[in-house]
Specification:
The chain has 816 residues and is an alpha+beta fold. Among the domains are: 225-413, Valyl/Leucyl/Isoleucyl-tRNA synthetase, editing domain (Isoleucyl-tRNA Synthetase, domain 2), CATH 3.90.740.10; 754-815, Ubiquitin-like (UB roll) (Roll). The chain has 28 helices and 31 strands. The strands form 9 sheets. Strands 10, 11, 12, 13, 14, 15 and 16 form a 7-stranded mixed sheet that branches. It has a 4-stranded parallel sheet with strand order 2-1-24-25, covered by helices on one side. A 4-stranded antiparallel sheet has the order 6-5-9-17. Helix 2 (50-68) crosses helix 20 (599-609) and helix 22 (652-674) packs parallel to helix 24 (705-718). The longest helix is centred in the last third of the chain and has 24 residues, at 621-644. The chain binds ligand ANZ. Ligand ANZ binds at residues 226, 228, 245-248, 251, 261, 327-328, 331-332, 334, 336-337, 339, 342-343, 369. Ligand ANZ is lined by residues 226, 228, 245-248, 251, 261, 327-328, 331-332, 334, 336-337, 339, 342-343, 369.
Length: 816
């Protein structure tokens, strides 16, 4: 008998699958398609550990399970390789990011291959390959031509450590997500994608997605729709008007001052000389405070008067303009009309600085606007509101709106436009040429890609320009419009631009004419199962949805949402419960475990058996032994079965038991896998193997249909989890073709029907006993047996049974 030795069988099958192109997908409409995708990894300097492996194992099991159900499965893999980590790694290790990424990619690929994941490697993509980023640039131009990419001087988040700007999404509590540095505000000319144009659709379409509620609500909060209007106030002595955003337009008669965020663009302009010094020192004092801190309700309000005044459009009142940090620069218009009679923050501010308070309801006391809006609307009548005095709140609200209607009305979002320019080297160059005559001119499509040049130094200069600015051969060019001398844009694109469309490229990865053909994209997409960690809740998942919607509007594709179903896997922690990381020196890599002889199949079992796939779990070294022994038992059982083949004579009743165990297991595993119950499916398989061992002692193996079916289905059910051992034993037991393209076993419902049923017995509706009866027994005999039951008889003694209720095969109730 051969020993189970993963080291000899696993590499062998990996090679065979590759040369047989087993996992290569084609647009064959004969069977329904299924697109299974895991987030394409960032090939960092550190090797992949068992936490990463869990993600790919889940995807691989889903892909294999569906393939065996007759789906035409697309399961591709590629590399999301632009971005800061690679660049910082390169600077630190004094190699070019290209060299670093190529090394890392090769290592990651080898690691994935040794796990036996069934990827269609013929579709491998790399976001840093000019053949790929050519199309990222093409999409940039598409957005530019639609007015969805624009350049603007803006107050941006500047990371003083990584020396680049960050998107709002990359700032957490005032700190840079990556470097941890306190983010500074800087005024720089930057490129933005106008994601706010799609805010409504990004919000509304969330309702139709099969995603976790927590991710959906994170996106909802991030987009943050708030229905209100913007109202313009004239500025005394200046032509510029100040817009405010308000959700309480009917309080406009109660405005007694206006507050601008300290960063508001007009502050410097309107501040009078007398107040300028005060204003500037206040601005200084608020720098570096996080938005969270600034929104803190309990914090004492602070602010200063600018010396300027605006005019209330509804009644011509002269309103002083203050600045205060409780107004955020990035929300609404960065200015509020303050109504201290109804807004708590404004009320506190007015009290502190002795500003007038006007109450706009007949109550003539502070009424929180939210309360008024939500409760007892009828109780409020307007006061101090000019011609609207005495009207019910509800009616007055509408009438004032009618009056303001000539002013701009809009929906406001918390979400800002997506800042995509980076002053760093390792990214896709922004395909724009700046001409002194024609301004920002797109690079003509036939001149794409704008290739990232090799440079001497990758270090960012820190003056707000990318290292590309130091490469004259790159910078100096001619204007595509007028032919005059011009300069290339030297900023590169945020890595999230590359990942906003990669799932589409997998449908048509080698197309040199287009990013993809519509036919292929429509055939494969949307992605049916998208699997990844929850860390991408906002950025990647929101950006990709945005690009998809733009492509839909451009008629490049026929669907509006890229990922129908999203699955967020639970993290694997180190055995002691800490997060695995290179710096803590507690990572466990699959390579070592394979080397120790457990093999990839055991690791795959372990990844999923360790707990529900969507919950965090601690890695367990002992668990590896258990996973290995389970596979070893399957191995040994199948070996013994093969050696015994040829004998015959299984007892009839045992044959029934063998078949029953097999059919029961098929049903249970199939149903579990449909709901991603990987750990329970594996538990059922373990129990099944135990059962088969027991059954074998009763009769020995025999070459008969029952045993044949039992072993064959065992191998098939295990195949998605442990593809190598399943394939090996499949071949050993004389099957031709791959087990992974075989048809998933089907169970026979009739065989699973239990022969005995448990009938519950009640007396006056109370449970008094239960009996076992043979399926199909008639009512009279069941009722007789129920009456005769010892426990029940006690309650019936010397009683008249007035009625007997019988529910077939389930329940008898005696009414006495
Ligand atoms: C006048 C008013 C009176 C307001 C009243 C509220 C109550 P939500 O619903 O969260 O969107 N606001 C507008 N822009 C702001 C900014 N940049 N920073 C801080 N606050 C800002 O809140 C909308 C309300 O928040 C707006 O309506 C505005 O104050 C304030 F009794 O206008 B309101």
């Amino acid at each position: 008998m051969q020993r189970y030795n993963p080291k000899s069988i696993e590499p062998k099958w990996q090679k065979t699958w590759e040369s047989d192109k087993l996992y290569e997908a084609s647009e064959d409409p004969a069977s329904p398609k299924r697109y299974v995708l895991e987030y394409f990894p960032y090939p960092s300097g550190a090797a992949m550990h068992v936490g990463h492996v869990r993600n790919y194992t889940i995807g691989d099991v889903i892909a294999r399970f569906n393939r065996m159900h007759g789906f035409n499965v697309l399961h591709p893999m590629g590399w999301d390789a632009f971005g800061l980590p690679a660049e910082n790694y390169a600077i630190k290790n004094k190699v070019s990011p290209r060299v670093a990424i190529d090394e890392n990619t090769a290592r990651f690929k080898r690691q994935l291959m040794q796990m036996g994941f069934g990827y269609d490697w013929s579709r491998e993509i790399d976001s840093t390959d000019p053949k790929y980023y050519k199309w990222t640039q093409w999409f940039f131009l598409m957005l530019f031509n639609k007015g969805l990419a624009y350049q603007q001087e803006a107050l941006v988040n500047w990371d003083p450590v990584d020396k680049t700007v960050l998107a709002n999404e990359q700032v957490i509590d005032g700190r840079a997500e990556r470097s941890g540095a306190l983010v500074e505000k800087k005024s720089l000319k930057q490129w933005f994608f106008k994601i706010t144009d799609y805010a409504d659709r990004l919000l509304d379409d969330l309702d139709n997605l099969d995603w976790s509620e927590s991710i959906k609500s994170m996106q909802r909060n991030w987009i943050g729709r708030s229905e209100g209007i913007t109202v313009e106030f004239e500025t005394e002595g200046h032509t510029e008007k100040i817009e405010v955003f308000t959700t309480a337009h009917d309080t406009i008669f109660g405005v007694t001052f206006m507050v601008l965020a300290p960063e508001h663009a007009l502050v410097q302009k309107i501040a009078t000389d007398e107040h300028r010094a005060n204003v500037n020192s206040y601005i200084k004092s608020t720098q570096g405070k996080s938005e969270i801190e600034r929104q803190d309700e309990g914090r004492p309000k602070t602010g200063v008067f600018t010396g300027a005044h605006v005019i209330n459009p509804i009644n011509g009142a002269r309103v002083p303009v203050w600045i205060a940090d409780y107004v955020l620069a990035g929300y609404g218009t960065g200015a509020v009309m303050a109504v201290p009679g109804e807004d708590k923050r404004d009320y506190e501010f007015a009290q502190k600085y002795e500003l007038p308070i006007v109450f706009t309801t007949e109550q003539q006391e502070f009424v929180n606007y939210q309360t008024k809006l939500k409760k007892n609307r009828k109780n409020y009548k307007l006061a101090n509101s000019g011609e609207f005095n005495g009207l019910d709140f509800e009616i007055g609200r509408q009438k004032i709106l009618d009056k303001l209607i000539e002013l701009k009305i809009g929906i406001n979002y918390k979400m800002r436009d997506w800042l995509i320019s980076r002053q760093r080297y390792w990214g896709a160059p922004i395909p724009i040429i700046h001409c002194p005559i024609d301004g920002a001119v797109p690079v003509p499509a036939d001149q794409l890609p704008v290739v990232l040049p090799e440079v001497e130094s990758y270090e960012p200069s820190g003056d707000g320009r990318s290292p590309l600015a130091n490469v004259p051969e790159f910078v100096n060019t001619t204007c595509p419009k007028c032919g005059g001398p011009a300069e290339r844009e030297t900023d590169t694109m945020d890595g999230f631009a590359c990942s906003s469309w990669y799932f589409l490229r997998f449908a048509d990865p080698h197309n040199d004419e287009l990013p993809f053909t519509r036919d292929k994209a429509d055939f494969w997409l949307p992605v049916d199962d998208y699997i990844g960690g929850a860390e991408h809740a906002i950025m990647h998942l929101l950006y990709a949805r945005f690009w998809t919607k733009v492509m839909y509007d451009e008629k490049l594709i026929n669907f509006e949402e890229p990922f129908t179903t999203l699955r967020n896997q639970g993290m694997i922690l180190a055995p002691n419960g800490l997060k695995m990381s290179k710096s803590k020196n507690n990572t466990i890599e699959p390579d070592e475990i394979i080397e120790q002889g457990y093999g990839a199949d055991s690791i795959r079992i372990m990844e999923l058996f360790i707990g529900p796939w969507n919950q965090t779990a601690n890695w367990s070294v002992e668990g590896m032994g258990g996973a290995f022994r389970f596979l070893q038992r399957i191995w040994t059982l199948t070996q013994e079965y093969q050696e015994a083949e040829g004998q015959d004579g299984v007892h009839q009743s045992h044959e029934q038991a063998i078949l029953k165990a097999a059919h029961y297991t098929i049903r249970s595993v199939t149903e579990d896998l449909k709901q991603l119950g990987f750990n329970t499916a594996i538990a059922t398989l373990m129990e099944y193997v135990n059962n088969l061992y027991k059954l074998k002692t009763q009769d020995d193996f025999a070459n008969n249909e029952a045993w044949n079916f039992a072993i064959t289905s065992l191998l098939q059910l295990v195949a998605p989890f442990a593809p190598h051992i399943a394939e090996e034993l499949w071949a050993q037991t004389g099957h031709t073709g791959s087990i992974h393209t075989s048809e998933w076993p089907v169970y026979d419902e009739a065989l699973l029907i239990e022969e005995t049923l448990t009938v519950v017995i009640q007396v006056n509706g109370k449970l008094r006993g239960e009996i076992s009866v043979t399926r199909g027994a008639d009512e009279a005999s069941v009722v007789a047996a129920a009456k005769a039951d010892q426990k029940v008889a006690r309650y019936l003694e010397s009683q008249t049974i007035r009625k007997t209720v019988y529910v077939d095969g389930k329940l008898v109730n005696f009414v006495i």
